UniProtKB/TrEMBL annotation:
Protein name: 2-C-methyl-D-erythritol 2,4-cyclodiphosphate synthase domain-containing protein
Top-rank taxon: Eukaryota
Domain 2-C-methyl-D-erythritol 2,4-cyclodiphosphate synthase residue range list: 29-64
GO BP field: terpenoid biosynthetic process
SUPFAM superfamilies assigned to the protein according to its UniProt record, in alphabetical order: IpsF-like (SSF69765)
GO molecular function: 2-C-methyl-D-erythritol 2,4-cyclodiphosphate synthase activity
Organism encoding this protein: Taxus chinensis (Chinese yew)
């Protein structure tokens, strides 16, 4: 992460010093959103975002 921050800071500093807009660096990650749909089955744990939710049913799913 520190290398990434340094690369971004360097790009911003060089742009502000030269006054010429430059292309943004290509970052090694993408940001977005999505959703999953899973059947809830009796007797399975319900875990959402790593948090165990007290419920009589849980997710019938395979996680990689």
């Amino acid at each position: 992460i520190s290398v990434l921050c340094k690369a971004i800071n360097t790009a911003v500093e060089s742009e502000t010093q030269s006054g010429v807009k430059k292309d943004a660096p290509i970052l090694p990650f993408r940001v977005g959103h999505g959703f999953d749909l899973h059947r809830l089955e009796p007797g399975l744990p319900l875990i959402i975002g790593g948090m165990s939710i007290p419920h009589d049913r849980g997710c019938d799913a395979h996680y990689d």
